[in-house]
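agent> step 3/5: call structure_predict on target 'Monoamine oxidase' (Mycobacterium numidiamassiliense).
agent> reason: downstream docking stage needs a structural representation; sequence fetched in step 2, passing through unchanged.
tool.input:
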Amino acid sequence: MADVDYCVVGAGFAGLTAALRLKQAGRSVALLEARDRVGGRTFTVTRDDGSWIDRGGAWVGPGQDRIHALMDEFGVPEYKQNHDGDAMMIVDGKKHRYGGTIPWSMSPWAVTNLGVGLTVLEEMCKAVPRESPWEAKKADEWDRISLAEWIEKNSLSKQAREMLDMALAGTYTSAASETSLLWMLTQMGSGGGPGFVIGGKGGAQDARPVGGMGAIYRPMAAELVDALHLSQPVQQISQDADGVTVSAADVTVRARRVIVAIPLAIATSIVYEPALPVDRAFLHQRMPSGAVIKVSVIYDEPFWRADGFSGQSSSPNSPATLTIDACTDTADPGIMCIITEGPAARRLTKLDEAERKAVFIGELVDRFGSKAKTPLELHEQNWTVERYSGGGMIGHAPTGVLTQFGYTLRPPCGRVHWAGTESSAVMCGWIDGAVRSGERAASEVMAAETAAVS
Ligand SMILES: Cc1cc2nc3c(=O)[nH]c(=O)nc-3n(C[C@H](O)[C@H](O)[C@H](O)COP(=O)(O)OP(=O)(O)OC[C@H]3O[C@@H](n4cnc5c(N)ncnc54)[C@H](O)[C@@H]3O)c2cc1C
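tool.output (status=ok):
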């Protein structure tokens, strides 16, 4: 049995950060990770030519200070996302090519409606306290209705509804009817509002680390090499008056406290002894993730740029809900990313790999022309079926959950502490939020020991 000061469960950005900060503070740590790799919902693959593919989380934006601090710590520079060229929106089979952020060639009604809707939501986000959204003046009212109900009430046309739906529900990779309005306001508000979420330049897709997310998590893991145990899914956490015993597949750890840094929906797979308080246990059962497939298609060059496209396109409910230019800092090779979200991702999961590939390439040819027909490679990452993620991109709260169980998101349950991006009051759902949650949990366990001594 390993005997350490603290145990951390899960080596995504939250767990890696918690373990690293504890080690840097002179504490002994064991970091137990279920997969045979670190990174969790980020996963960088480096190709033979040195280019890289981020198969999960990839982009960073302004205000994401804690992931930027890690990048500085490990000497990882960023490069700006390509936004040059026209974007495309496809609605009812019609392609709208546009510069800037507004597809003006669409129905002016729909476009105005979208703009007004986002502005109203931006204001509503400001009325939600980041640390305690359940205390917002209208918390009960907003938690009682789904995002779909709000969109329905605030859309003047089918086009407007589809655009709002994609812009808002897309983040949760679920149908808008599955997500509470209060959750949407909380999550988007934690990053500054919907403008930041859907914004390219200056928003959440502003830049990427050179070398991908792996350029950050690999050196973190290297610093933790003595602490890290891969392929060790944690099965049980028992706590008593003196500490915790954490049992994984082949390793048992005895520690003073444990930080659990895994997605809420799969935190139910661990047996807690004694059982967790009911509200926290119910929170685990009620915070599902959505369905998402991320596909990276490699070409000799980013041919869409020469044709005047930025690579950004959107098509509500299609098998390629979004596309975005995902080239490295050198634009060689050309990398086009497809993100398929929600019900469309679930439908695609039922096809076999060859059928899905044909669908993806067909969508790219339809949008960017015949040069898209012959990629060098296609990398598909279906987060929907990843056992240790339980879906992606992030967990969401259906109606009624935040107001009843949200207060349990952060407080520890005895010696069991909680991290993970969904527990972050700032940049909740982003990699930056994961880092913040890891730093908060590390400070929390150390403060608990200090309090016990004094
Ligand atoms: C397709 C996709 C695109 C995204 N794009 C972006 C983006 O561009 N920018 C951005 O900021 N965010 C993005 N995100 C979200 C971002 O990836 C996550 O917010 C972040 O990685 C979450 O980190 P985490 O440490 O909280 O959780 P995770 O990364 O999920 O880490 C949890 C870890 O716990 C492990 N684990 C699970 N169960 C157990 C167990 N029983 N025992 C031990 N270990 C266990 C898992 O294997 C995993 O390594 C994206 C996510 C996806 C899926």
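agent> step 4/5: record observation. The domain at 107-198 is CATH 1.10.405.10 (Guanine Nucleotide Dissociation Inhibitor; domain 1).
agent> proceeding.
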